[in-house]
Amino acid sequence: MIRQIVIVGGGSAGWLTAGLLAAEHGAGGRVQVTLLESPDTPPIGVGEGTWPSMRDTLRRIGVSETDFIRACDVSFKQGSRFDGWVSGDGDYYFHPFTLPQGYGDANLAAAWQLHHHGVPFADMASFQPHLCAHARAPKQVVTPEYASVANYGYHLDAGKFGQLLRSHCIDKLGVRHVLGHVSAINAQPNGDIASVQTREHGALAGDLFVDCTGMRSLLLGGHYEVAFLNQRHVLFNDTALAVQVPYAREDAPIASQTTSTAQANGWIWDIGLPARRGIGHVYSSAHTTDEAAERALRAYIGQECASPRKISFTPGYRARFWDHNVVAIGLSAGFIEPLEASALALVELSAAMLADDLPATREEMDIVARRFNDSFTYRWERVIDFLKLHYVLSRRVDADYWHEHRAGASIPDRLRELLLLWRHRPPSRNDVNRIEEVFPSASYQYVLYGMGFVTAHAPRQADQLDAAEGYFREAAALTRKMLGALPGNRELIDHIRHHGLPNI
Fold first, then answer.
1. Among positive and negative, which fits the CA dihedral 482, 484, 486, 491?
2. Looking at the domain assignment, is residue 411 inside a domain?
């Protein structure tokens, strides 16, 4: 029977996994979750964005949204804005979290291209870009915890988030916390890991081990030598410079979206937290130097700032995520780049699938492992397709970086096939048809048409073009209503800090 689960590594990945496992299986002592954490390994700690799925995750493990917002320097995120990705000449588009109005009931893309091409697609099909443009919050002060008026995720301080999760898991969910260093890995005769040896506490035995050791991938990559599938030939970025920047004044508006601004050899993220902005330049070391990237970052910031912290990474993922009795979650499983904030979402999906399908016995584990590996191989490949789409559609000509991103040899076969299909029909649920797709078909439409992709329109009965016009009017009416009713992002956050949110 699977009774002892040992998570090696903390941070957001380790503590989210511990929380979901303990909340689902820890009642009555059925399963003991132990998290072994090195006291000498700080988290990466840059400002991070989440998807709306984080609301369900936090609710599932019993964290109060009010406590979370107060403790983790949280602001509300309603999507992403992309500046300069098309031509670099003042262009922009939004990828909001809310689906287009009437999505799936009419061919919105065809109606937009035929009659409204002068208006950005997302601005026409959804109210949410307008909320972001005015730095509005996604809910009212009377909206209960985790409920929404407009779909939302969060921006947060990753270091503080890990601390909140640690306290909650230990104090409320009974997770056993061990501080120590792994000195050896002890194997069973069948090849499973029997225990991890620590310098401070001896051997920690387990029936299942979760590798959350970051890019070292101590158990899956180190002990089991599961291959790392390098994806630098598809997505070139391998370095980031990150810095924290104070607001010019304390009451400055807080952006309701992550802003991603294209540069000659990469892009810059800009995340607004209540007390500061987290800003960073992601770039390809094969196309530019650290010094040139830092100059571009400082030019974007436009004011004196601290020296940025350099973070190097290799884009890619493991050939398997579960081997024997070890499953990797977080950076130990892989990392591509922070565009579209998929890292924490993949942690959530991985931890949730592990909690939902936790094998009762070792005999069942190989079956669950095969399903887990199939699911997450698919998900990592879809993340790569979706991120690559942003580069393939760009028409920037200011550097080899952009030309090489559009070269056919760097485009995955599946994405190339979809782009061919989308010349004559918009993305649909038939193109990304698994339950809990990482990016739904609506996200592909937001990016495609935000970046000026043209789908030739051959009229079909299912298009419902008149209905599409009605949905555009609905989106416009909702925009007017919500702009008049929703507070500013900072206004709502200040209210929560002083008064909290209602409980459901």
1. positive
2. no
Strand 208-211 and strand 4-8: pairing? Answer: parallel
3-state helix/strand/coil string of 132-172 = HHCCECCCCCCCCCCCCCCCCEEEEEHHHHHHHHHHHHHHH
Number of helices and strands in the chain (H, E) = 15, 22
**Is 46 part of a structural domain of the chain?**
yes
> How open is the CA angle 370-53-251, to the nearest 5 degrees?
145
Distance of alpha carbon 70 from the chain centroid: 21
In a domain, 203, yes or no: yes
CA distance 204 to 207: 10
Chain segment 365-400, per-residue pLDDT in tens: 999 999 999 999 999 999 999 999 999 999 999 999
Angstrom distance (rounded) from CA 198 to CA 188 = 17
Which residue is associated with the tokens 């807080």? 254
Element housing 451 (H / E): none
* Whole-prediction pTM: 0.96
| CA proximity to 371, closest of 361, 51, 379 | 379
Collapsing DSSP to helix, strand or coil, 178 comes out as strand
Look up residue 21 and give its two tokens: 């496992």
> By residue range, what is the domain housing residue 339?
4-74+154-231+315-375
For the chain, the distance separating the N- and C-terminal CA atoms, rounded to the nearest angstrom, is 37
- Check which CATH number belongs to the domain holding 343 and give it: 3.50.50.60
Percent helix, strand, coil in the chain, to 5, is 40, 20, 40
pLDDT tens-digit series, residues 117-175:
899 999 999 999 999 999 999 999 999 999 999 999 999 999 999 999 999 999 999 99
Phi, psi of 333 (to 5 degrees): -85, -30
Domain presence at residue 425: no
3-state DSSP of 378-400: HHHHHHHHHHHHHHHCCCCCCCH
DSSP state for residue 254 in the 8-state scheme: P
Element (H, E) at 61: helix 53-61
Instruction: Write out pLDDT tens, residues 227-283.
Output: 999 999 999 999 999 999 999 999 999 999 999 999 999 999 999 999 999 999 999
pLDDT of 422 higher than 90: yes
Residue 268 near residue 283 (C-beta atoms within 8 A): no
- 369 in Cβ contact with 323 (< 8 Å): yes
Provide the 10 A C-beta neighbour count for residue 388.
21
> How many structural domains comprise the chain?
1
Distance, CA of 237 to CA of 401 (rounded, Å): 10
Q: Which amino acid is at 115?
A: H
What is residue 335's three-state secondary structure? strand
